[in-house]
Amino acid sequence: MSHCGTCDRWFNTYNGYLQHVNNSPAHQSSSESDWECDACDRSFATENSLHQHCSSAGGHPYCISCKRMFISQHNLMQHMHSKTHSSMACPFCKSPFANASGVIIHLEAGRCSSGFDRHRINEAIRKLDRNNVITKPMIELPGYGGRVETMATDMAWNGFGFECYLCQREFGSLHGLNNHLKSPAHDQEIYRCPKAGCGRNYKLLSALVQHVESESCGLMRFSQVQKHARNGIDNMVGRMITR
Fold first, then answer.
1. How confident is the model over 108-121, as a mean pLDDT?
2. How many domains does the chain have?
3. Can you give the pLDDT at residue 52?
């Protein structure tokens, strides 16, 4: 249904609403005070009439709460994903973030006072996802829980730099090489999008959540991800698993 705020009337169809706007004296354009829609070049007698039109019309990249038109749906989505419309907080240290993936990145990086890092996140999600809906079954060494840390020594010096034996990338210092080895650069892609036909794989939960937030595969709407995540990351993951 479509609502005319100027007349406080509801219409069963958008076409019925448009006919009302076109024929009602309350919406007739008159003079230099016309308000024009940037998306379809239609004019309206009042700002409220224009707002009602933009809010209801299909294909209009319009933010209803901000009363702002954007040049594309992509720009509108970026705006909707900004801190203007979304605010999340770390459940442990209460640090603010724009979205759910930002909270998870914070935890995976080990920046939270809770002591969480990507390894603890991975372990928790794999225990939650017992049927491997968003995680892949992995072969692990008994007692390691999937957490294996590699450290380089001075023997990694090849005459020009400290070389990673896994990817042959060179670093100017041993510290730089060890930071690289501690990063997820060589982690397994243990996460997968559960949407049928998508098939994308990720090394980090945050990367999977960013994919879902983008709405590119249609698994969940961005607003749904944020809503569920506010009740806990495990609640959001649970919703992804049971869809």
1. 93
2. 3
3. 82
User: Within this chain, do residues 214 and 178 fall inside the same structural domain, yes or no?
Assistant: no
Report H helices in the chain: 14-23, 47-56, 73-80, 100-108, 118-128, 174-182, 205-213, 222-229, 233-242
- State how far the Cα of 49 lies from the Cα of 32, in Å rounded to an integer: 15
Predicted TM-score (pTM) of the model is 0.66
DSSP 130-172: TT-SSB------TTTTT-------GGGB-SSSEE-TTT--EES
Q: How many residues in total does the chain contain?
A: 243
Q: What is the pLDDT of residue 154?
A: 96
Whether 226 contacts 123, CB under 8 Å: no
Contacts of 58 (CB under 8 A, 6+ apart): 14
Question: For the segment 13-60, what is each residue's pLDDT rounded down to a tens digit?
Answer: 767 766 776 666 555 544 445 788 888 878 888 888 888 888 878 788
Q: Which domain holds residue 20?
A: 2-80
Residue 200 lies in a domain: yes
User: Are 99 and 58 in the same domain?
Assistant: no
> Domain for residue 149, yes or no?
no
Long-range contacts: 48-57, Cβ < 8 Å, 24+?
Answer: 48/5, 48/6, 49/6, 49/21, 51/5, 52/3, 52/4, 52/5, 52/6, 52/21, 53/21, 56/2, 56/3, 56/14, 56/17, 57/14
